[in-house]
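[Automated response] Your request has been received and processed.

Submitted sequence:
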Amino acid sequence: MYEMTREPVKNDANMATRMTSGSARFGAGLLAAIVALAILVPGRAEAQVGGSAVVFLKIEPDSRASGMGNAGVALADNASAMFWNPAGLAFQTGTEAAITHSAWLPEFNADLFYEYLIAKHNVPGWGTFGASLTYLFLGEHEGRDAQNNPTGTFRSYDLAAGLSYGTKLSEQFGIGTSVRFIYSNLAPGQVVGAQETKAGVSTAFDLAGLYRTKPFSMGETMKGTFSAGFNLANMGPKIQYSDNAQADPIPTNLRFGYAFKMDFDEYNSLTWVTDFNKDLIHYSGTDSTSYEADPFYKAIFSSWQSIDVRTNALADDEAEFTSLSVLNQMTIGTGIEYWYNNLFALRAGYFYENPDNGNRKYMTLGAGVRVNIIGVDFSYIYAEQDSPLANTMRFSMLVDFGK
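Generated structure:
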């Protein structure tokens, strides 16, 4: 048996729909799913920041960028730009569709899986439009009441459907936006603390920009292209799973970075990408009973400050803290991609998160093949065996219908 109660600062605690030992019990599979999602948000911090709900929105979807250390905000040159940077759609033409599948967090053996379906189409004179569907399955579980009597089985899942648009303001600069509907169905119809749980519903939108140079000479045969971009993602109202007033923020975050592509000749090219990512979540309050997450339009400003992070799990009166600067609150992903004749690609990268802010550190590997209109990409996370992310693989298939 386990107990989860609301804390002033937490990792995705509301996703557990405030389950307590005195009100409802759920299967270990759901607990594993909740813990699995919780690793996507920073570690426990005191008073200034906390976790968010629906963190599945932060899962990097496509295998190509995932093979390069989860970096793609300045690359954004295919339909997956809808996640990384919708402004990347502004530089794209034609019609394209893609799907990504992943057995999510295989180390948990909880039968979780992740699906991502996207399509984009360019309308000459208007820009490029896109649509996306994200689905994370969190398993089937058995609900029980306070007396441990079965209340039936239920399925837990997260779903987001979105529309995107990108257009150029100049030859080198484009802007983009995405809007999405979020439906989080974790433990429907369960009674927790005299409140019946329900699916959480919210909406979100992104604002993004991308600058890309024209190819410039780097020698007799070598040419270079430099890109820089940002995506202010998942801005929207809080989400709640019951009829009470308690609600959690969705994972608003800022991603920015650069990409540098070198075309050595007509057959060989190498691209180096780097992304920086900062969660824009901030909790305000004067004591443990008044902590409340700032609304997103305030948190995008108030979250830019140092925070005090708890470094042990002792009682509050024995807790130890360390200060975490704004820079140390960021994650960094960097990687390279080599293409031969636009037919075969090899990728590698590294992802880093401060030890006091989640401590996710791993290498990524990937490969891709393009044959006619079909593209297939694969990525693999190489992490310590005790990491829930270890051995995570993603497979993507892309169909380019041409210009």
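Summary generated for your ticket: Residues 13-402 form a domain with the Porin fold (CATH 2.40.160). Confidence is low (pLDDT under 50) at residues 1-29, 41-49.
If you did not submit this request, please reply to this message.
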